[in-house]
Structures are given as structure tokens and as C-alpha cells.
Amino acid sequence: MGECTYCGSSERMPFKCKFCNEQYCRDHRLPENHECAGLEAFKRERGKEPEKWIYEPFKSKKEVVAGRKIKRPIDERILNFIYGLDSRKILYGILVLIVILTLSRL
Questions:
Q1: Which of 10, 49, 64, 96 has the fewest CB atoms within 10 Å distance of its CB?
Q2: Looking at residue 25, what DSSP letter applies?
Q3: CATH architecture of the region 2-47
Q4: What are the pLDDT tens digits along the chain (106 aa)?
Q5: What ranges do the domains of the chain cover?
Q6: What separation in angstroms does the CA of 41 have from each of 38, 57, 82?
């Protein structure tokens, strides 16, 4: 049970104001209805100029011209593929190659 800070009525589930952190009844739960000092401070702070910050969105490495993606040169794509391989992928590739060669001799 809580008590309304504005009118003093007891409430089973009082509302907590996010501006002044006081408890209020349902009639006085809005900041405008209980003459909230925290709301006035919030409005003053909001009126100040915001802090400067830099926003740099993610830039894609691929160029886009007239709505179409320009693919990287084939040699660059092949090198990226080779460098991206790990030992497990190489081993699987060799095993697949052995199986294909074995089955082709039968």
C-alpha cells in the first residue's frame, strides 16, 4: 500500500512518476496533475542544445552504381576464397576428390 504524495489518499498500487520519483494515485499520476517539479527540470534540460556526436554509418566495401552492385575482380574473389579456407575444408575437399576418382575407375 502506498500513499499519494499530492492528496494523501492511500492506494493499493500507486503510480511512480518517472520525473520526480514520487508515488501518486490514479487521479494525480500524470506529471501535469501533480505539478511535477521534475517535469519542469526535464523540459529545461530538453531545451538545451544537445551534445555534439559523430555518426558514421556502416559503409559497404562494394560500390553501388545506378542501383547495381559492382563485383570485385575474379582474382580478388579467388584469393579471398583460398585465404578463407581452413584445414578441415581442405581435408573434406581432398576426401571428396578421392571418392570421385575412385568411383570413376569402377
A1: 49
A2: -
A3: Irregular (4.10)
A4: 788 888 888 888 888 888 888 898 888 888 888 888 888 888 887 776 666 666 666 666 665 566 667 777 888 888 888 888 888 888 888 999 999 999 998 7
A5: 2-47, 71-105
A6: 5, 33, 60
